[in-house]
Amino acid sequence: MDKRVQSIKWLYVTVFLLPVLGMAQEKNKEKESKIDEVVLVGYSKVSKADLTNAVGSVKAEAMKDMPVNNAAEAIQGRVAGVQVMASEGAPGAEVDIKIRGGTSITQSNSPLYIVDGIQMDNALSILSPKEIESIEVLKDASSTSIYGARGANGVVLITTKGGRKKAATSINYSGYTGVRKITNTIPVLDPYEFVMYQYELYNKNGILEDQTAFQTRYGSFSELADKYGNIKKRDWQKELFGQEAFNFTHNVNIMGGSEKSAFSLSLNHVEEDGIMLNSGFRRSMANFKYDYDVSKKLKVGFNARYSRQLIDGAGTSASGSQGTNRLRNAVRYQPFEGGSNVPVDDFDPNYATLTNLVNPLILNDNEIRQNRTNDLLLNAYLNYNITKDLTFRSVVGYVQKDNAVNQFWGTVTSDARANNNQPIVQLTRQQTRRITNSNTLNYNKKFGNHKLDLMIGQETVQTDGESSNTYVKWLPSSILPNEAFASIQSAVPPTGMIQDAPRTLVLPPDRLVSFFGRANYVFANKYVITASIRQDGSNVFGKENRYGTFPAFSLAWKMKQENFLKDKEWLDELKLRFGYGLAGNNRITAYLHDTFFTTSTDYGYTFGSGVTPGATTGNIAENPRVKWEATVSKNAGIDFGFFNGRLYGSVDAYITDTKDLLVLAKIPQTSGYETQFQNTGKTQNKGIEVTLGGIIFNRENFSWKADFNISANRNKIMSLGGNLAANSNSYLVASGWVNNLYDFIAKVGSPVGTYYGYVTEGRYEIGDFDFNPATQAYTLKSGVPSSSAIALGSKAVQPGDLKLKDLNGDGQITAADQTELGSAQPKFYGGFSQTFRLKNWDMSLFFNFSVGSKVYNANKSEFTTQYLYRDNNMSADVANRWKWFDNNGVKVTDPTALAALNANTTMWTPPSGNYILHSYAIEDGSFLRLNNVTIGYTLPKGALESAFIKNLRIYATVNNVFTITGYSGYDPEASTRRNPLTPGVDYAAYPRSRFILTGIDITF
């Protein structure tokens, strides 16, 4: 076993398990009940004691010690079976949440978010943690099927804080300020190592022109040591990412109520600088909730939320291929002053042409991106108690998202240089609108040993939207970004050129109508049965397959209530659960079941000085037979509690099968189309989840509490359906970081997102060659497989070149030698927290961990491959490469001397062929991260009563304190590709930072 994995496991035992064992020695009569909580499970609430489903819950108390601006980060590692991963460390970066591994192959695996009863996309990324009352995560289909078409990937129910009736008005302010710093950088060659590497590149082939070019740029060999051994080093990563990034966050909550009403107002303002120059995040948000009792029977309320956010900065890359990688310039730009006739802080067009590089600071000033998003949520409800047992509830909601992205490319960028060296602007606009209405009838009745809860309901959801895209070239060279955004009319096309016409698009309207019901029956407070059914109708599908029906049932046995356990004082709770359910997925574009025409200038023609739009059917063929993707989930669990609330937890095991996968399949182009949505294939997830918690000490002046969860999920493709050849059970997938590199495989029997490439066998050594003293030439021995065609650009293999393993034993390296190289799926993952209180002091530590995952370090591939360019800096690993020149700058060809020269080197010569995936780039992604440490002090009650202050707490926090990992990149959690089939790719990710802050929480 890897020593790092062993050390991580021992740390888990030390930090969590030993304290739990120590609880047995602590005696305390105070009881903290965990079974009287109320849990939101979809359209209604249920007592946790009567819960039959797999539901994870996070309350506001658990998030109070996590001063972060993204609520998703606050729940990371806190719920078993839920993976929360920030794709990178950029301000406002997207956060991916997967529940129990995800079920779909090509469609979104994001859960459904419901905020105060209203569907809201990616809600945790736009909510402030301070306004959240509770988060419930529905994990199994027996709980999610009540949401039918939208619940296949799990459901996250979020309740925001509201006021309380008959409560005096209180005002709470919480704010913090701090600074972020980069935690690590990618090691690169220092100036002398860089120049010595360039000396080899320029002189290896003995071409006089290249040798002269080297001397002109860098100088003669005799002066390299003195000139570059002491030259000022430019650490471009630290200059680009090394700024101290300040953060200011303010939260104000005003709440209260009268005899009949309750209100709350939440305000949030964030100003967060990024560690990368010219990057940052700004958000202002307001949320108002009001509830009013019109009468004893009728209650009404409404909620209004509005937020505006701005994400500044072009970042380190876009989602496309290596052409959008801006990190490359910080890693590969020459690491010193000088080296050409143009000062290093000025733009050098010749250097840019020869190297495909631009000074990263200049480039950062010339690539501007402003991403503005406005979110509006309005919802209202009406509760009417028809009788004391029968209640009608109606909820109506409106959600609108407006997104505006302004991008500017200045004269030094490759885009502008390809367009007459003039700036370019792109303006992208999109608006989506969603209207939701749900109506439910609830009947609750207790009679004797029986408790009955019945619900029937109806819901409609309709979504509309439109988008536009304006791409403007040939702006004046001296124009500034904000001027360009405001005056695109100043662009003047060169003679004979025509400006691209703006593109507009109406998003296909999405309509969903649903009918559902649920019954919950409890007998003798021991046996619980829950059954539900939902029917959804969606315009995504044709008439024959428009409706889907999703049933579910679950059982629970409250063993603690049986006579043989009822009097056991050491046992608080023991409950067995079993659930079975069917959920659906319809997350594809609407109306693909029929042929529709759209207009676009992309398919237009030139007429006079403009472009006349044309009509087209697009490149996706209609499929009237496409139907619902279906997920069947089976879950068995046990909940337990011991010693008057001192130890509690749960264990769940599940099997989730998804069939009729909605796959965008390749079809013969003779059809006139490229792809078609089809129902093809099956996946399976199996897993186990364990949650434990305990109160280790609970005395008047000291308490110590610990919570722990761990999950293991095994994902497997069971079938890929009928869109493959009869003799094939797999197909290749491209991650996209390099064009035409198919580095993933979708294969029956393997996990979704399996890396696919060659096995690294080191490098070719002297013994692999025959040497001709007369010609000084090395020729590969007969029987030694050649990597030339795959890795070396078809150049003749030389000693020190990259060597790949011949897996099929045919004596040559071909595509047939590719194999599976692992996946991003961890063996297990989770988190644990420790909370301490000593009189008025408090302290919390929160860890999250992952063991057994693999990370595809695409940066490592790029920064150890020469590809087409010289004068590029490389990864520090290249300093240990095979060398051809001795300390006097003389090329060594004699086999004995060459072997002696490289006796202590281990790295191969950077390949000059195309980028490929080989096992060198696949690294162990196991890690243990101390995510948060907080120390706080609360003033004694009454200390500031004369100043009308009810509570005052000050605290200091460090987020991302340290990470124990063997991964060599910025962060083992980075995942920059958005395709579910290509997870775990770390390519040009924005570095993660450490955040040190201080804050105050005060209530009046």
The total count of strands amounts to: 47
What characteristic shape results from the CA principal axes?
A: globular
- Low-pLDDT parts are 1-35
The helix count comes to: 17
Class per helix and strand makeup? mainly beta
Report helical residue fraction: 10-25%
Kindly report the average pLDDT value.
88
Rg is 31 Å
End-to-end span in angstroms?
56 Å
Task: Describe this entry's structure for a reader.
This protein has 1004 residues and is mainly beta. Among the domains are: 191-232, no CATH class; 754-826 and 855-923, no CATH class. The protein contains 17 helices and 47 strands. The chain has a 22-stranded antiparallel barrel. A five-stranded mixed sheet has the order 3-8-9-6-7. Helix 5 (191-203) runs antiparallel to helix 6 (208-218). The longest helix has 20 residues, at 3-22. It is globular and about 105 Å long.
List keywords for this structure.
1004 residues, mainly beta, 22-stranded antiparallel β-barrel, five-stranded mixed β-sheet, 17 helices, 47 strands, disordered N terminus, receptor, transmembrane, Plug_dom_sf, membrane, TonB-dep_rcpt-like
Secondary structure elements and pairings:
Elements: H1 3-22, E1 38-40, E2 45-47, E3 55-59, H2 60-63, H3 71-74, E4 82-86, E5 95-99, E6 112-115, E7 118-119, E8 132-138, H4 141-144, E9 155-160, E10 170-182, H5 191-203, H6 208-218, H7 224-229, H8 236-241, E11 245-257, E12 261-273, E13 280-293, E14 298-312, H9 327-332, H10 349-355, H11 360-366, E15 367-385, E16 390-409, H12 414-417, E17 424-447, E18 450-472, H13 481-486, E19 503-523, E20 527-538, E21 547-558, H14 563-566, E22 571-585, E23 598-607, E24 610-616, E25 620-621, E26 629-642, E27 647-659, E28 662-666, E29 675-679, E30 682-698, E31 702-719, E32 730-733, E33 744-747, E34 754-757, E35 760-763, E36 769-772, E37 777-780, H15 788-791, E38 802-804, E39 819-823, E40 828-838, E41 841-851, E42 854-857, H16 858-862, H17 895-901, E43 922-924, E44 927-938, E45 951-965, E46 985-986, E47 993-1003
